[in-house]
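About this split. The held-out portion is used to measure sequence recovery: a designer receives only the structure tokens and must propose an amino acid at every position. Recovery is the fraction of positions where the proposal matches the reference. Here is one held-out target exactly as it appears in the evaluation file.
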């Protein structure tokens, strides 16, 4: 399973990078395959472990923000591993043709 999610602190002003870094730190310390871009952090693993990471990332932001917004998109495909890499490689292969 791959989950792309975004955690946004509300009520803390416009500069939220420090808060988002708290969430991303949780993801990176989880040891699960992950990627962060300008809009989302994607994490790959089994349902329970991925959802636990998302829960803990939200909790990290919640500790310092009065309100938190969570956007989540999941690709649930049993038996597939390394989707974070293989999906991008497939697109890049087609772009190279």
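Reference sequence for scoring:
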């Amino acid at each position: 399973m791959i989950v792309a999610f975004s955690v946004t602190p509300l009520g803390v002003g416009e500069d939220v990078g420090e808060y988002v870094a708290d969430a991303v730190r949780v993801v990176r310390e989880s040891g699960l395959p992950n990627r962060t871009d300008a809009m989302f952090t994607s994490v790959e693993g089994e349902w329970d472990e991925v959802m636990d990471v998302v829960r803990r990332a939200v909790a990290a932001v919640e500790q310092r923000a009065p309100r938190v917004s969570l956007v989540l998109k999941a690709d649930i495909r049993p038996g597939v591993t390394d989707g974070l890499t293989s999906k991008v490689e497939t697109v890049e292969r087609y772009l190279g043709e």
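Annotator remark: The radius of gyration is 15 Å.
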